[in-house]
Hints:
By secondary structure, the chain is an alpha/beta fold. The chain has helices spanning 21-30, 37-51, 54-59, 62-76, 83-99, 109-118, 133-140, 152-155, 162-172, 186-195, 223-235, and strands at 7-10, 122-127, 148-151, 179-183, 200-204, 217-218. α10 links the parallel β4 (179-183) and β5 (200-204).
Amino acid sequence: xxxxxxxxxxxxxxxxxxxxxxxxxxxxxxxxxxxxxxxxxxxxxxxxxxxxxxxxxxxxxxxxxxxxxxxxxxxxxxxxxxxxxxxxxxxxxxxxxxxxxxxxxxxxxxxxxxxxxxxxxxxxxxxxxxxxxxxxxxxxxxxxxxxxxxxxxxxxxxxxxxxxxxxxxxxxxxxxxxxxxxxxxxxxxxxxxxxxxxxxxxxxxxxxxxxxxxxxxxxxxxxxxxxxxxxxxxxx
Length: 236
């Protein structure tokens, strides 16, 4: 990792915000499927890790991956696919299309963003999203922490395409050589950031499933503060 980081790019879904599993569990219950929100949340990292294969990422877009992801979460939570689960996920999708179901903000997110701000780094969101990211960030109170928020839907290009990172550099006035990106998919976030020539790519590996990955990993979002501070102190 480079010594000095002036800008931190952050993925939204899976890093700053997470699916509202209470809402998903309620949708399943409405269709007669018993589901526990905590069990869905616990299953999610395994479903994401299973998806994070180069071949799948290369042949799918963010919208397609989103629903492969939900099917995987249900399977890892021990819920068999059925007509009822399909109807429930269709309800979730309708909500997502209007509001964005990645609307849960973990308790450590705001304090961590404030601590990063105190380190005098730019904060920029670079996210594959559905055009509702800005409105959702306004609703959950995150917008004001960022110098720029890039929703891939609005720019017509998705990670891992390096063009989205280049657009983010231009929008924020950042320099690739002093910019770190943090995301939760190796083949989308780490690969994309490297292709764009960013200084560092960090994998947010909440469940410690990426042992041996050739990049820095953090297991809690708050760990990012120490990572940036230690590097910048060493380069001061």
